[in-house]
Amino acid sequence: MKNCSLNKKCFFYTLGLNRVIISFCILFYANLSIGQQLPFHSQYMFDGYLLNPAYAGTKDYTHVNLSIRNQWTGFPDAPQTMTLSANGKLRDNMAIGGGLFNDQTGPTGRTGLMASYAFHVPFDNSTLSFGLSGMVFQYVLDKTKLTTLEPDDDAMQGELTKQLVPEATFGIHYFADNYYVGFAIPQLIEWKLNVGLYENSNEMKRHYFATAGYIFALSGDFELEPSLLVKATSAAPVQADVNLKVKYQSFLWLGCSYRTQESLIFMLGANKSNVQFGYAYDATLTNIKNYSSGSHEVFIGYRLGVKKGGKAMM
Prior knowledge:
- The chain is mainly β.
- The protein has a single domain, classed as monomeric porin ompg (Porin, Beta Barrel).
């Protein structure tokens, strides 16, 4: 197909007519989801480093996090993402972070590593952080999972196409004890993948993430935290996540999110000593719900250097 795009989910399976029809559904609804060139995460409010390198070192401890996500459970070759990351203060006004990631969707895959640096500018009751991250990943296209309307299409010759891709993210994050705002630009370089397909069909688009949140202290030991994430790119409509989280004694939390044009998300988790655990279930709102039982995400975190008797906030 002359105009087949490699944006994540835009593919046609060689598994029979029914799945080809389903793939057309994926193609349509993926165009409504701006995050599809980048992996989805539902529990980013517990690890802002997944979105913004300026988040590194904003806590008084080093945070090591593992996130595993299976999207659209039950659908053949649906997206699967795993991320292992760590971030913490290097000095009073400097922080570093890094991680490994693997993201597989149908015929495409990205496996790589990232590293970041953040500089903090303190004010009387707040801090402004600037962050920059760089990454290198291997992009793989498995052409055996693709078919075209032209069986002898030259672009489909061979089985695997691989390419090393450099990318970068810039971010800023302003925060105090009870509120925060941030802005990040992933895929700054807008690297053009050379995977043997058609011109302009495989460009990585620059994205724009804006975040904001406020923490309300309620009666007793409860806290209420509404937050917002807005995602934009030139390739698709603006998408927003509207989130609400309730915490009890920094030990137990419940949350829900509405991702426009995409899903309802339900979350729960707990802290035990320095270990943090979270689970999220995404209930898909698009027609893909007819072929999938939703998405599941597990988050495990470990905090190093928490001061004795101090709070390890989520």
